[in-house]
Specification:
With about 325 residues, the chain is of the alpha/beta class. It is built from 12 helices and 10 strands. It has one domain: TIM Barrel. The longest helix has 18 residues.
Length: about 325
């Protein structure tokens, strides 16, 4: 950390595992297991959980049970349950499921948007207009995802100006919050600082979130750079679950356990129980028959087998 840098005492962690994580899972996860996974995450204390997606079941069969999942979860009084919606039809289904907030998804590179949602950037934004109108009428908060903000698997380097342009268009459309995504996990701290500086000139940092993947092991370093730049909202996925089918070679999302361990060790409050997140990840690991990628998860499970609890405290790490 740079000398003299002030880090916020409070950070919001948005759990995206049930949607962004599970959508790329090859094996089918049952509806009941998804519901139990979300309930475990609710018990951990998240303020926002991205629960599922109301896209066409043909596009993402894994999330074809979105309505059933939303009907089955036990909603916590302090938790907002968000879903991804692509268009008017998806929004109609989301409203019928009584969601708390919705998210729309586009990118900063034309090739990625074409491969992902079969349209142009402008076309995707046009599709969002009725979603925003319906959200405003229902009093529902809307989040806008900007993917490939640091690089595209088809185009390579993505200019900051392209990210800035898409971000402003989404804000003009009426989104409440922007999540800036390192979809293929290639960002480094200097790039993170650069894009936040560019966006922050026109957008309040309180409306910016960062969404990192850990393909090259830089996700936590990028979080620290974003913290130092004033960002206080971060997306992560329990166990590091996820990836991107349209980004060859991209690994999973930043693991929630790893993020929480670092933040709590820095004295940054999140309101989330790290041990409870480990429990949620462990449940899903049993369902998947595969251990999560999270290093903190591995350490915590090893500690559990020894009868002790892994913790992090400001200025001191201990087992």
């Amino acid at each position: 950390m740079k000398k003299g840098t002030r880090i916020s005492n409070g950070v919001t962690v948005v759990e995206v595992g049930p949607r962004d994580g599970l959508q790329n899972e090859a094996g089918v996860v049952s509806t009941s297991d998804k519901i139990h996974f979300i309930d475990l995450l609710t018990a951990a204390g998240f303020k926002t959980i991205e629960a599922t997606s109301f896209v066409s079941p043909k596009a993402i069969p894994q999330l074809g049970d979105a309505a059933e999942v939303m009907a089955g979860i036990t909603r916590g009084p302090g938790t907002s349950y968000a879903v991804l919606v692509p268009n008017r039809r998806g929004m109609e289904r989301a409203l019928a499921a009584q969601v708390d907030e919705v998210a729309v998804f586009t990118g900063a590179s034309e090739s990625f948007v074409a491969h992902n949602i079969n349209t142009t950037i402008e076309g995707s934004i046009a599709n969002f207009r009725p979603v925003l109108e319906m959200a405003r009428a229902a009093g529902i908060r809307v989040r806008g995802y900007v993917s490939t903000a640091f690089g595209c698997p088809y185009e390579g380097v993505v200019p900051e100006s392209a990210v800035h342009s898409v971000a402003l268009k989404l804000l003009e459309l009426g989104v409440d919050e922007l999540s800036i995504g390192d979809t293929i996990g290639i960002a480094t701290p200097n790039q993170v600082t650069g894009i936040i500086s560019r966006l922050g000139a026109d957008i309040p940092l309180s409306r910016l979130a960062m969404h990192f993947h850990d393909t090259h092991g830089t996700a936590l370093a990028n979080v620290l750079a974003a913290l130092e730049a004033g960002v206080t909202i971060f997306d992560s996925s329990a166990g590091g679950l996820g990836g991107c089918p349209y980004a060859p070679g991209a690994s999973g999302n930043l693991a929630t356990e790893d993020l929480l361990y670092m933040l709590h060790g820095m004295g940054v409050e999140t309101g989330i129980d790290l041990d409870a997140v480990v429990t949620a990840s462990d449940f899903l690991a049993t369902v998947r028959g595969k251990s999560p990628d999270s290093r903190c998860y591995a350490a915590a499970m090893s500690a559990r087998r020894s009868g002790i609890k892994l913790e992090a405290s400001a200025g001191e790490s201990k087992v």
